[in-house]
Amino acid sequence: MVSKSAIVLLSGGLDSATTLAIAKQEGFGCYAMTFRYGQRHSGEIEAARRVACAMQAAEHRIVDVDLAAFGGSALTDVKLAVPKDRNSLNQDIPITYVPARNTIFLSYALAWAEVLGVWDIFIGVNALDYSGYPDCRPAYIAAFETMANLAIAKAVQGQGYLRIQTPIIEMSKAEIIRKGVELGVDYALTHSCYDPAPSGQPCGHCDACRLRLKGFQEAGLTDPLEYA
Fold first, then answer.
1. How many CA atoms lie within 13 A of 132 on its CB side?
2. Which residues are bridge partners to 62 per DSSP?
3. Counts of helices then strands in the chain (DSSP H, E)
4. Residue 130: how many CB atoms within 10 A of its CB?
5. Which residue among 72, 128, 143, 180 has the highest number of C-beta atoms inside a 10 angstrom radius?
6. How far apart are CA 189 and CA 225, in angstroms?
7. 101-107 long-range contacts, CB within 8 A, separation 24+
8. For the chain, which domains are there?
9. CA distance 77 to 40
């Protein structure tokens, strides 16, 4: 019986699908939140729909936020090329970083959490096998959690403390995949690629694809997706 609930940010990718599975394993009734933020393709939104359905989320909201209005990222501005086959994945901040994305997403999740009376928000950020984004670091998450508890009425009134849960933040991609497989995640439903082919197949060369493929290889498993 579910006695507690959580908001889970669900992008449709490998990390967020695993995070949703972990939240369910921990006994949370999960309210999934996905964003149509002006990204260059809709593949991840469709993947999020599939994952939310397969994992029986209590509710799945798709929220429209127009980050493409500001640009500044290869994920929201088609005039900027998605980097392929970068030599270093973790040492600089690539053009695929979307300015303030996690801050905006967590703020929306915070609003929904307050309305629902939920005290936990799960986000699948990772500080090991990732593309170097500043809003995936533990220091950022800790700062947002502190801010959130200064911002919402119920926390200020002493009714509870809101937690930003990051269960995979210190896991390698291989460890994340192994955990997901253990929990029954169907990674064939997920989408990770930044720049898929017109057919929808992942490119295999962007940071997200390379990290995903590296993770499956190190986990001794085969990625169920077919690459272009």
1. 12
2. 34
3. 7, 5
4. 18
5. 180
6. 9
7. 101/37, 101/67, 101/135, 102/133, 102/135, 102/136, 102/140, 103/135, 103/144, 104/37, 104/65, 104/67, 105/9, 105/33, 105/35, 106/9, 106/144, 106/148, 106/164
8. 4-218 (3.40.50.620)
9. 7
The whole-model pTM stands at 0.96
Phi-psi group of 196: left, alpha or beta (phi > 0 → left; psi -120 to 50 → alpha; rest → beta): beta
Closest CA to 171 of 126, 122, 223: 126
Residue 84: which residues within 8 A CB-CB, separation 6 or more? 195, 203, 205, 206
pLDDT tens per residue across span 180-190 = 999 999 999 99
Nearest to 168 by CA among 34, 20, 58, 48: 20
Cα 217 to Cα 208: distance, rounded to the nearest angstrom: 14
Q: Do 176 and 187 meet the contact criterion of CB atoms below 8 Å apart?
A: no
Rounded to an integer, what distance in angstroms lies between the CA atom of residue 65 and that of residue 25? 30
Q: First vs last Cα of the chain: how many Å apart?
A: 43
* C-alpha–C-alpha distance, residues 114 and 6, integer Å: 11
